[in-house]
Write a structure and sequence with these properties.
The chain is α+β, with helices and mostly antiparallel strands and 172 residues long. The two termini are 30 Å apart. It contains four helices and eight strands, in the order βααββββαβαββ. Strand 7 and strand 8 form a beta hairpin. It has an eight-stranded mixed sheet with strand order 1-2-3-5-6-8-7-4. Helix 1 crosses helix 2.
Length: 172
C-alpha cells in the first residue's frame, strides 16, 4: 500500500518538479490543447511558488509524484468571474497541478486535492476554488467526481478557463 505524503516543496526540488511539469505540458500539447503552451508554467514560476512557501509536493517515499501551488485568497482574476461563486468568504485556490507520468491513473490528483482540502480546513477555510481549461477533460472529471460546482468562466493570459468551487463541511 503506497503511503503518500503531502508537504511544502523545497528549493532543492525544483529539478524533479520541473521534470513533472514539463511532461504535463507536453501531454497537454499532445492532447491538442493550448493550455500551458505559452511558456507558462516555467522553472521561474516554480521557484517563486517555493520561495513564497506556496509550492507543495505529493511524495511516495522519497519520490516526488505530484506538484501544485496553493494560495489563500490570492487570485485577483477570480473577482472578475463571468458567473457566480458559491461563497464570497476566504478561499484556498490551487494552480499548476501536475502528476508524474508513471503515477498517472493511480488517483494521485484526487489524493492531492484531498490534501489541499485538508490544508484549507487546517487554516479554517471552507471554500476551495480552482480553474481549468475547457478541454482538460481529465481535470473536469476529477472536479465533478470530488463534488466541485461549475461556477462560470475566468480569464488568464487571454484564455478562458472553467471555474469551480467546493464548499467544505466544517468539522463539528
Amino acid at each position: 500500500m503506497t503511503e503518500y505524503q503531502f508537504r511544502k516543496a523545497q528549493i532543492s526540488e525544483i529539478t524533479p518538479i520541473w521534470d513533472i511539469l514539463q511532461l504535463a505540458i507536453q501531454r497537454r500539447k499532445e492532447d491538442g490543447s493550448n493550455q500551458w503552451q505559452d511558456g507558462y508554467p516555467n522553472p521561474n514560476v516554480v521557484q517563486k511558488d517555493i520561495e513564497k512557501e506556496e509550492g507543495f509536493v505529493l511524495t511516495d517515499g522519497e519520490k516526488i509524484v505530484g506538484y501544485c501551488a496553493i494560495l489563500i485568497n490570492d487570485e485577483p482574476e477570480y473577482a472578475k468571474i463571468e458567473g457566480q461563486w458559491l461563497t464570497n468568504d476566504d478561499f484556498v485556490v490551487f494552480h499548476r497541478v501536475a502528476i508524474s507520468e508513471e503515477y498517472l491513473g493511480k488517483g494521485c490528483a484526487q489524493k492531492m486535492i484531498g490534501c489541499i482540502e485538508d490544508f484549507a480546513r487546517h487554516n479554517n477555510i471552507y471554500s476551495i476554488k480552482a480553474d481549468t481549461n475547457f478541454d482538460n477533460f481529465a481535470m473536469i472529471k476529477i472536479f465533478e467526481k470530488l463534488g466541485y460546482t461549475f461556477c462560470g468562466h475566468v480569464y488568464f493570459r487571454g484564455g478562458q478557463r472553467k471555474a469551480y468551487e467546493k464548499v467544505l463541511t466544517r468539522a463539528l
